[in-house]
Prior knowledge:
25% of the residues lie in helices and 23% in strands. It has three helices and six strands; from the N terminus they run E-H-E-E-E-E-H-E-H. It has a four-stranded mixed β-sheet with strand order 2-1-5-6, covered by helices on one side. Strand 5, helix 2 and strand 6 (108-115) form a beta-alpha-beta unit. 12% of the residues are buried. The mean pLDDT is 92.
Amino acid sequence: MPLWRIFSHSSTFNTAQKQALAQSITQFYTRGGSGLPAFYVDIVFIPVERDSFYVGGKQTTNMVRIAIEHIAIHQPKQEDDTQGVRARMLVTIDELLAPHIAARGNLDWEYHVLETPRDLWKIQGIAPPPFRSSEEKVWARENKATPWENTK
């Protein structure tokens, strides 16, 4: 699962803007049915009021702070990334966010990506099937977690 927590002032995104960004994020991970199941993708918009958002010790209303947590799949470790996968992922995230945040011109923004070990993750009490396995394809097709034969 990718979990995106998007912190911003309560007036930064309206409902349509949230929906458009959530759809772009989901499409990034599902890639037309060849990637992750859509229900793996969680996006949470967290409104922060003026008196609760500070950058550099100063109140702000134009900051968007995004915490991205990857659980279902991971990038290679930095020392093993001979193909530049990690850098390409960041470029892709920049491109994904550009029309929703950067193009607005009035927002400051920042994000980071954390990776949680896959073995510490369950959905509906079920350990997810291996990435791109036939069982995961069933989950994607049904768009929900279903019991499967596993060794956990």
